[in-house]
Amino acid sequence: MKFFRAAVFAALFLTGMLVPALAQDVTLTSRDGKVSVSGTLLSFDGEFFRVDSLYGVLTLDGTGVTCAGIGCPNLESFVAEFSIAGARSMGAVLLPTLVEMFAEQSGMRVKRIVQDDRQYTYVLRLAETGKDVARIAFRMSNTDGGIAEMLDGDADMVLATREITAAEAKTAYKAGLGDMKRAARSRIVGLDGLVPVVAQNNPVAAISLMDLARIFAGDITNWQDIGGPDAPIFLHHLSADTGLAQQFETDVMQTEKRVLAATIKRHATAVEVVDAVARDPFAIGITRFSEIGNAKMLALRGTCGMAFTPTRRALKTEDYPLATPLFLYTPARRLPKAAREFLTFLRSPAAQRAVRHVGFVDQDVTQIGIDDQGKRFANAIASAGDEVNLADLQSMIDTLRPASRLTLTFRFNTGSSSLDAQSRSNVVLLARLLEAGAYDGRELMFVGFSDGDGAASGNRVISQRRARAVRAAVKLAATTLKPDQATLSTKAFGEALPMACDDTEWGRQVNRRVEVWIK
Amino acid sequence: MLIKKSYKTAASTFAIVVTTGFVMQNGDALASRFATAEPQAQPSQDAPVRTTQNLASEVANPAPLADKSGFADRVNSSEQNYTPPNISLDQEFSALGLTCDVTLDATKSAGAMVTLEFKAPCHVNEVVTINHQGLRFTSVTSEIGHITVQMPALVAAASFKATLIDGNTVSAIVNVPEVSDYDRVAVQWTGDSGLRIHALELGADYGERGHVWAKSPQTVAAALQARGGYITALGNIDFPGAKHAEVYTFPSGQVQKTGVVRLRVEAEVTAKTCSKEIEAQALQNGVDGVISVSDLTLSMPTCDAIGDFLVLNNLLRDLKIAQN
């Protein structure tokens, strides 16, 4: 038996897998010796024992018991081990940078043990004593792969460039991993966006979402059809199991009711997409905002002339319609202390600096003065008419002029009154800022806007209702906020300040929003 | 024993220099100097040519000068702007009669490069470790105890340290504000693991112009003309503990283009490295804009992959070149 165990250990060691606590016999006895539990040790995280005992699986606080038996871990030399699996686009540069920053802030040094570009382990050790504190195993594939690893019980953290689907969440729930749709199970590490790119020497500068869908469906095959040269279009895209490709499928292809062409050249990473596109003046590719390489971004053109350039600010505000938050999911089980501290660190200003440093979009809330919003107000004037008249516009300007818009914006899922993932995260973000006193003595206006479908009066009512709902959600989340700390008011202007044209579903979705303005 | 051996070699080298180069190049000057100086009975001072033997014995037993009076004046009168060396006879001397002082000088040169001149006349053919902001490599002193190396500065207030085997360390500081015009990354390792940085500049592919690496390192001069970046290989000897580094420089301030320089690190799988773990370090700009050093262990592929390369795309972050 002992021999066999040694063999298993050796095999696990050789394949470089993380070793979970092996089934071994332990007896845990309370400090006063009155209570003891025997069983098979399932895991030990440096603080807690999980034991499969006569009474079922028990979790016992390590500080309250003494351990006897061959299965007892060495408490002194305990090293927290956890694994991160999933999207390579997040795991290649972003997460390693965050781990390094976390270590630096915690007085630890890191060593990266590299197998290859997909598999590496970070060892964190105390700078003072040299004692190992944690080993973080990275196994990078894509969003699908990461979620599959989590469902198999192999991943402690999953990197995903799209939201978990209802079907995946259901499977996870059945597997005892908890409700992945709950805020506690996910967090947004940073922001990114889907961006169409062409070569630098391609004359095309903007494209409508409709044309983008037609091109990737193979319905448009010549640049001439969208104002370019008479040349065939070559298509480059991410592989179908990446979260970004799936996001493109739902946000662009399905919205425009198109199916991807078979002639598309697929690539495993965004780096490969942009490198291929940059070298071919007749190519178009889909990549992420954080990986443009030597290619050129195309702006998205609305049918009525409003264009959306992907910028950091437009991704923060979700004014750019193809924003893609970067998720980190954790199954509902107790993580070692170092892992929990890392998750807490992800929300810190230092983490946001690291996110920005490596080319992703951070979630720091900044203010946009009215002077920087000329284009939006020009749109408002251009779309004004019978339903929204001069008096409406003047009343809106009077309200907003003395204030600044926060980058933090709330938007809703397609055809639904539920907040989208980035906005749900924003509720928590704003609540934390309020609790921390960031807006003490100021007035925060929750300003509702709607699309232009239906009567203007009805839209004003709907936008008012949304503004109130968002304010209520923020108040509920800001549990320690005192009523006199900051004034939270609501305003509503219906369809008066459109961001996009209302003739497409995504245009309407961009317009339906609650902005936050500060006075 | 060992000291004596190198001593002899050094002395004979010097003798050749004195008898040929020195006299040939400076013959006229010498002639004029001796013509104006009062001829006095100072044989050990006057003889421009020495034999190996008498030089060696002189150095081994430095005899006090017969008559030191007026020595400085005499030399002064023969050469303008001459300042007499501040030498005390209590000091130790090298085989060549130079003081055993260990010195390091750092001089800025074009392209935010720094020329280091290390002098340790009493440490010939000795390993010296050079360290600059965590970038370190080993070099060996010449027959006269010198090392001259041109290396990239990583920060504006650039400090350099040179450490001898006995732990004796000298340092130098030079201000290189031009550093902000350049992006620099480095990898460094110990032994002959042979890591290589490959830079693919602004869309270049392997083998094309703009693919910069050890076999196509390019030059500082090309960078100054905004033609692209260059590789600097540091560490000039191979022995089991030798420390090597490769620095890649891109002249971001000069190049009027935007785009990305892809950075890859490659390690060849050789009979020496296969199935082994290579210890290395990567140096690149941290979040605060300061160069940071991170420790790496590369688990090399097994020996059936000899001849292959372990290609790592993410050890060094790509450089994003933006115009202000």
Question: Mind explaining what this structure looks like?
Answer:
The complex is a heterodimer of chains A (519) and B (324). Chain A has 519 residues and is an alpha+beta fold. Chain A contains 16 helices and 24 strands. Chain A has helices at residues 2-14, 88-91, 94-105, 143-151, 166-174, 209-217, 243-254, 270-278, 312-316, 337-345, 349-357, 374-383, 390-400, 421-435, 456-477, 505-511; strands at 25-30, 36-44, 48-53, 56-61, 65-68, 80-87, 108-114, 119-126, 132-141, 157-160, 186-198, 206-208, 234-238, 265-267, 283-288, 296-297, 299-301, 307-308, 323-329, 367-368, 404-411, 443-449, 487-492, 513-518. In chain A, strands 6, 7, 8, 9, 10, 11, 13, 14, 15, 16 and 19 form an 11-stranded mixed β-sheet that branches. Chain A has a 5-stranded antiparallel β-sheet with strand order 4-3-2-1-5, with no helix packed on it. In chain A, strand 1 and strand 2 form a beta hairpin. In chain A, helix 3 (94-105) packs antiparallel against helix 11 and helix 14 crosses helix 15. Chain A is globular. Chain A starts with a helix and ends with a strand. Chain B has 324 residues and is of the alpha+beta class. A 5-stranded antiparallel β-sheet of chain B has the order 11-12-8-14-15. Chain B is globular. Classes of the chains: A alpha+beta (519), B alpha+beta (324). The A-B interface holds A 92-93, 96-97, 100-101, 109-117, 271, 275, 278-279, 292-294, 350, 353-354, 357-359 and B 202-203, 205, 259-260, 262, 277, 287, 292, 294-299, 310-315, 317-318, 320. Strand 7 (108-114) of chain A pairs parallel with strand 15 (291-299) of chain B, so a sheet runs across the interface.
